[in-house]
Amino acid sequence: MGEKPASQPSGSTPTSSKLPPGMVLGPDGKPCKICTSFRNWKPAKAALASSTAAAATLTTDTRAASVPTLAPLPDTRPAHCPPDVEGIGRATWTFLHTTAAYYPERPSPHQRANMLALLHALPVLYPCSHCAADLGAQMQGAPPDVSGRAGLSAWLCARHNEVNRKLGKEEFECAKVDERWKDGPEDGSCD
Ligand SMILES: Cc1cc2nc3c(=O)[nH]c(=O)nc-3n(C[C@H](O)[C@H](O)[C@H](O)COP(=O)(O)OP(=O)(O)OC[C@H]3O[C@@H](n4cnc5c(N)ncnc54)[C@H](O)[C@@H]3O)c2cc1C
Predict the structure, then answer these.
(1) Mean residue pLDDT across the chain
(2) How many other β-carbons are positioned within 10 Å of the β-carbon of residue 55?
(3) Going from the N-terminus, what domains does the chain have, and what CATH number goes with each?
(4) Which pLDDT score, from 0 to 100, does residue 171 have?
(5) Which end of the chain is less crowded, N or C, counting CB atoms within 10 A of the terminal residue's CB?
(6) What is the pLDDT of residue 42?
(7) CB atoms within 10 A of CB 152
(8) Which pLDDT does position 2 carry in this prediction?
(9) Is the shortest distance between the CB of 39 and ligand 1 below 6 Å?
(10) Which superkingdom heads the taxonomic lineage of this protein's source (predicted)?
(11) Could you give the angle at the alpha carbon of 161 between the alpha carbons of 129 and 34, nearest 5°?
(12) Ligand 1 neighbour 154 (Cβ under 6 A)
């Protein structure tokens, strides 16, 4: 992994113990904005917003409002701000899963080669470097399946689930990738 959470500083980052928990350091030992969630980058601001939100939602439970929670907040930055680790992650997964969903059933050698090049570029170029390094390690053990749409979608779903597991998130049911990324649900709510 290229970065270290600031909460577990190494001896080479003497100022890191002053950094908020959850902030990730880059390979240069400095806080890495694109490797960190916005809520961990600006924890003081997030805590203030949380306490304001708790006060604003005061109804009958006065105890809840008087003891504001410091639970993680969603990214509340304006849309014109640069992405954090979550923003670029969502955008990248959207691009990758959607591209897989529309990848041919029988791709030409040219299409296969380009898909392979695209996927192999990620561990080199993805700006969250610990994400990139982990993906590279995953790809060593599970080389991309570019043989066709179904194989590629399943391969990506498995890679995404590995990240989900690492982050303590629920796994996605890979049988539903087409519904999620191409067809939409049967109830027509996305038509
Ligand atoms: C290659 C890569 C590596 C990453 N590594 C890290 C990391 O090391 N640390 C870190 O903090 N963040 C990492 N991220 C970001 C992380 O995966 C999430 O994108 C981010 O936390 C935002 O999560 P989310 O809950 O909004 O949904 P996301 O995980 O971004 O998922 C977006 C949507 O995809 C769907 N989905 C979820 N799982 C699957 C699946 N298995 N198959 C198909 N569809 C699915 C769901 O509908 C979900 O709402 C990485 C992102 C990428 C692209």
Answers:
(1) 81
(2) 12
(3) 4-36 (no CATH), 85-183 (1.20.120.310)
(4) 98
(5) C
(6) 74
(7) 25
(8) 43
(9) no
(10) Eukaryota
(11) 25
(12) no
